[in-house]
Each structure stands twice: as C-alpha cells, then as structure tokens.
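Form P-L/3: holo structure prediction, ligand iron/sulfur cluster.
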Amino acid sequence: MNVADTDMALGMLHRAGYGRTDEPARADLILLNTCAIREKAEERVFARVSMLAEEKARPGVVVGITGCMAEHLKEKILDRAPYVDLVIGPDGYRRLVEHVAEIQRERQGAILPKHRPGAGLKDTTLDRAETYEGLDAAREMTDGITGHITIQRGCDKFCTFCVVPYTRGRERGTPPREVLRQARALAAAGYKQVQLLGQTVNSYRHEDVTFADLLRAVARIDGLERIRFTSPYPLDFSDDVIQAIASDAKICKHVHLPLQSASDAVLARMRRGYTYAQFRGLVAALRGAMPDIAITTDLLVGFCDETEDEFQTILRAQEELRFDAAFMFVYSEREGTTAARKMPDTVPEDVKQRRLAEIIALQHKITGEIYGAQLGRRERVLIEGASKRNGAEFFGRTDAFRAVVVPAAPGVGPGAFVDVAIERATNATLFGRVARIA
Ligand code: SF4
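OUTPUT (holo model):
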C-alpha cells in the first residue's frame, strides 16, 4: 500500500513539474514515505532523516515525512527532528504540492507561516471521504508490468495490537467507477497484472457493489492477464469471493490470509473476531474449491500474556495448514492501541525471539517441502525483471506467487509470459528452463 501511495504522490509531483532522483544530493524535495506498524521502522526513519539533515544546508531543499508514521507521531516528529519541514498523513497527499509551494513561499518571505513559527508544516487530519479519486500514479516511474489500485483505505477492525485504524482512519471503498477507470488505464498502458489493495480488501463494499463483483469486473478488462489482491480479512471471506477466484482464470490462485495466532484465547485478546476452527474451515473451503491454491499468512508471536501452550498452537497450525510462506513477527507495543492502553506487554524479549526463531525454522522447512514438490512441473511465469543476484537471469512469478528464476533467452524479458519447466528449488525460489514463450 505504501508503494501505491508513493506512486500516487510521485504522479502528483510529476504533473507539477518534478522529476525523480534517488540521489538525495540532487533533490530539491526529499520525502520519506513511512510505515508505523512496528517501532523499529519508525526508529529507522528517524535515523535516515537525521542523515538527510545535511541536505538542508543546500538552499531551498524541503524534507518531508509522509504516511502512517507522520499520522502516528504528528508534531512529535517536528520536536525530535526539527529539520523536517513537512509532515503529511495518509489522507493529506492531495495537498502535497500545495504544501511544498507554501513552504517555499514562506522561505522567500512572500507569505507568513500559518503554522507554529520555526516548526514544520503538518497536515495529519484524517478524512473519512478521501479515496484519491481521479489521481493517477506516476506510471512512467513504475515497472510497467504490475499496477496497484487502492480499492479501500483505512480499517474498521481495531485489532487490539494494531495502529492502522488510528493512522489510516476508518474504512472506505474507492467508487467502482474509479477502480475500473484506473484498471482500464493500466491495461491501455500495457500493464499485465493488477493488484487490488486494501487493509481488509475483501470487506470492500461501495453501495451495493461487493468485492466479488469488483474482482469479476476488473477481470473482464481486456489486456489485464493477472488479477491479485491483498490482504483479505478471514472473517469477511464470502463464498461468493471464493467462487469468483475459482471460476476466473485471470484471478490468481494465491491468497494471503493473515492468521496471527492459532490460540482462540490469544485471537480473542487480539480481537481478531474468528476462532482457529473458523480459519481452518476457510482454508478448507479455499482448497476445496481450488486444490492448487497457495495460501500465505502473517504470524505474530509474543502477544500480551501469550503462554507456552498458546504459542505451541501456532506451530501446530503451521504443520496442519502448511502455508506456502509467512511473514513472521514478534509483538511490539504500539502507542495508542488498545493493547498498549490496557494489556501489559508481558512476554520477555528473549522468549519472543526464541518463539520467532522456532516458527521461522518450521516455516522454512514447510516452504522448502512445498517448493521441492514443484520439481518437474510446468508453470506459467510472468517475468518481472532481471534477477538481482545474476544479470544473466530473469525473475518472475507463477500464478501462485512463487518466485521463479530462469536463464536469459530470446523472448524472455520483463512483461513476457513464459512456460517454465521447474528443475530446482530452494525454500524461497524455484529455478527452471523456459519450455515455451507463451
Ligand atoms: S484488520 Fe486488524 S491487523 Fe489488519 S489493519 Fe485492520 S486493525 Fe490492523
């Protein structure tokens, strides 16, 4: 979602005459788009922004922090990093260019500052209606293969550990006309794949249009070959959505379904709204409708008062559900959440880290087994770009989102679909030879 927001901000800046550089020393405007989901990410932003302080020595340079950390910390950012000129939350991007121009006019003495004298400008008002309708991303700055469309902003679930409802505000769906406009524009620009984004993407509803309706409508657009979405909320996974995925070849057979914990007591403390049995039932329904579907997940260990027995349920769930892959984290308290206000963070750090190491080791083993079972199969792969490790190889993904590396060959390049015979696997990547250019 941050990538999509960054592309949208780049689009606005591009239309205002800015060009992009990745070298801070050449930039007139330096923006850090941030995440607040973990404290570590925020600390890293402060470290990065302090390194940018020297850029401020050049006349006219504007430094800004945007995104969830801006919303979460607001003026605390300006207190701790006084060289920051601009703090913009996730609902303030529409005014980004205007704010930069205002700062520049203040510096020239053309206007008096409207904000606290000597401090940066802050725009962190949440807006229940903002869906950024009409604002296109800077496509010339993306890979030209995968386009992101934010179909929903904010979240109404209020899981006790999570800061997102406070940083991104309440849930709202982008009107279907806007989603389809963006999807058609991506198809016309030659994009092959579109990813629909939302904090709880399958909770999407706009008037009487459901997520399943929207998925089907996007899949009908000529030119788009693969439709993905992330992240669905387990409780809102309707049979209609399962049917939509199962019945349309363009909708990829991969679902990222965050489990977090497999203990009903922990799930209740997290206020996730489902039990492990319900989650397992959903996995069975997905696999019943699509035997080859890949399911990935998020797992969180060390949540408040998590006992050893409660932790063990996660390991058992990994064995039972055999996720393709998982994002795995230790709980860290986030200011402003229900957990931070009411639930002491009781699990010692060394216990959290040991539990994390255990689930990572088990997941690596399971992923390795699943990837190993792909040997000998033929998979259609969308090539996304050159391999990072070896310039003589290309990298792409299967329909199930598994990473595949193939040797460079005529016709193999970014945006190409190729059929690959899988010949080797690690626990993160498949390797093969191109059997056919699709
Ligand atoms: S569903 Fe829960 S974890 Fe996900 S964004 Fe919303 S509050 Fe956070």
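COMMENT: The first strand starts at residue 29 and ends at 34.
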